[in-house]
Amino acid sequence: MVVKVIGAGLAGVEAAHYLANKGIKVKLYEMRPKTTTPAHQTGLFAELVCSNSFRSKDPLNAIGILKSEMEKLNSIVMRSAYLHEVEAGSSLAVDRTLFASYITDVIKAHPNIEIINEEVIEIDVNEPIIIAAGPLVSNGLKDNLLKLFGEEELNFFDAVAPIISEKSINKDICYLKSRYDKGEAAYYNCPMTEEEYKKFYEFLITAETVPLKEFEVGVFEACLPVEVSAKRGFETLLYGPLKPVGLEYNGNRPFAVVQLRQDDAIKSMYNLVGFQTNLKFSEQKKLLSLIPGLEKAEILRYGVMHKNTYFNSPNILNNFYQSKEFPNIFIAGQITGVEGYLESASSGLLSGIYMEQYLTNKKIVPIAPETVIGSLANYIAQPNNKFNPMNANFGLLPLLEKHKKSERKKLYKERSEKYLLEYIDEVLN
To answer: What letter would DSSP give residue 221?
Structure first.
């Protein structure tokens, strides 16, 4: 029994790892480094192409609950994340190179996984396959999938923030602090006066961007380029990535604050929080020079914008991430319409669980939608006239009624844990 897994991103490695640990042989196809994408920089598996953050460490919010669920399901992504965590205040951030290198080594060393560095452009519906090719799926495979399912993909664009050298940060101006002093003081903060912000803002909304010629642009709200946000109004950034609240220094609150988050374990690189952008490189250099403390910033990686695609999943998938028409085919990752690193990884983990059940029992038992991981699978299968990518959130879960709002987070977590542990005991063990 052999399962093909296409793509060694966050979803693909989770699916391959789970199946291989269950004794199922896996052929893991990854086209990189032979064929690259507009966003990837390396040939490592599970490369983080945008932020290095897995978001909040709060155990009582939706992403915190998802982390806990994935840990209980033996997620390789969560294992590597905690092993290679870097300081980021109340967020879980990782050294992206160490994080991806660890996963690559574990997957390559697994006796049940065969790595094949080839681009897959055609799907055999008679073979068990998990398609985890990611939102940057190659054109050849994308065209084959569209033809196979008789569907058109929906487009949106994702953007990446610049990364700068730690040595080029002026520590006389920028200060270490996490918002509201939560966790360690992990972020460098570049404070702005009102006049400095006005100058920065005027440049930002008039700066030249890289033309996007091929596709109609639709930008996912969580990944808005900073210049797009700025054009919505003078105060928009002040309530977003440049929000000064909780970042007071020496008893004073700046008018605006640009935050820098550690990007590697040795603290040599920092990324600009919320500064994903499509500005021309020369304009990025000028923009950063207008930020107090970054006048001489050495840019190690410029911000870029790249195309992400996802399918109209309710038309083609059930709540097992399984094709309605071709039961041997499962699809996982952001291409299904789950949005975010951990959401993508969780769909790969779940597709591996469901594929194993499908192959061994011919019957799949779903994880309850009262769990966050189950609610995401449920979301992508529900009929929806305007299907859009979705992050983990409490709005996807069955409502908890007759409880105070302040109590609901704890109750969501308790309910999720109850259903997941029952599933592990009754179905997986």
So the answer is: G
Q: What is the pLDDT of residues 197-238, one digit of tens each?
A: 999 999 999 999 987 644 434 555 556 789 999 999 999 999
CATH number at residue 172: 2.40.30
pLDDT digit string (tens) for 149-167?
887 665 666 777 898 989 9
128, 108 contact by CB (below 8 A): no
- Determine, yes or no, domain membership for 158: no
Tokens of 107: 């997957």
State whether 6 and 145 are in the same domain.
yes
Note whether 339 and 277 are same-domain residues.
no
pLDDT in tens, 329-387: 999 998 898 988 999 999 999 999 999 999 998 899 999 999 999 999 999 998 877 67
Q: Which domain holds residue 69?
A: 2-153+311-428
Rounded-to-integer distance, Cα 130 and Cα 133, Å: 9
**Closest listed residue to residue 86, CA positions, set 77, 97, 76, 75:** 97
Last residue of a domain, which of 289, 306, 323?
306
Strands of the sheet containing 188-192, edge to edge, are 175-176, 188-192, 256-262, 269-272, 163-165, 299-301
